[in-house]
Design brief:
Shape: elongated
Structural class: alpha+beta
Number of strands: 4
Radius of gyration: 22 Å
Strand order of the largest sheet: 1-4-2-3
Number of helices: 5
Distance between the termini: 64 Å
Helix content: 40-55%
CATH architecture of the largest domain: 2-Layer Sandwich
CATH topology of the largest domain: 60s Ribosomal Protein L30, Chain: A
Order of helices and strands: HHEHHEHEE
């Protein structure tokens, strides 16, 4: 009886399939937290980690149902803009969630107005507006949060 040899490409293909399967299993297991998954993959491949994001609850930044920043927070956001300008960093402002108590705006308009208000406050700190990115993901979450990423 002669043993049949497997072609070399079949072994490499099987390795690739197993790696892809493992990758998608990890993605599926971490489906709720995309940032954590991305950080883990960056660390696994030796990339330097992304800087931490500052996350604020909307009620600590804004008047209820409005896009008007509380005066106490304007200085804090301007200081963030100064730090980002000194470092030459880019700031991403992202609004998530819905304020169900508002009658003046719908969910998307409120998120857009709030991110613009935060971007203006950061720009007042001296950061060039070309270094500020605004992200408006679909509002599917229940909580109201604003995330500011410094890169």
């Amino acid at each position: 009886m002669i043993a049949r040899r497997t072609p070399r490409w079949a072994l490499s293909f099987a390795d690739l399939c197993l790696l892809l399967l493992g990758f998608f299993v990890i993605l599926h297991a971490r489906a709720g937290d995309g940032r954590a998954t991305a950080e883990g993959l960056r660390a696994a491949f030796g990339a330097k980690p992304a800087p931490p994001a500052a996350v604020w609850r909307a009620e600590t930044l804004f008047e209820p149902g409005q896009a008007v920043l509380l005066s106490a927070r304007k200085g804090e956001l301007a200081a963030l803009g100064r730090r980002a300008a000194r470092r030459g960093a880019t700031v991403t402002v992202e609004s998530r969630g819905v304020d169900s108590g508002t009658r003046r705006f719908d969910a998307w308009e409120l998120a857009a107005a709030r991110t613009a208000a935060i971007a203006r406050a950061i720009r007042a700190g001296g950061l060039d507006e070309r270094r500020i990115a605004i992200v408006l993901p679909p509002s599917r979450t229940r909580g109201q949060t604003v995330t500011v990423l410094l890169r």
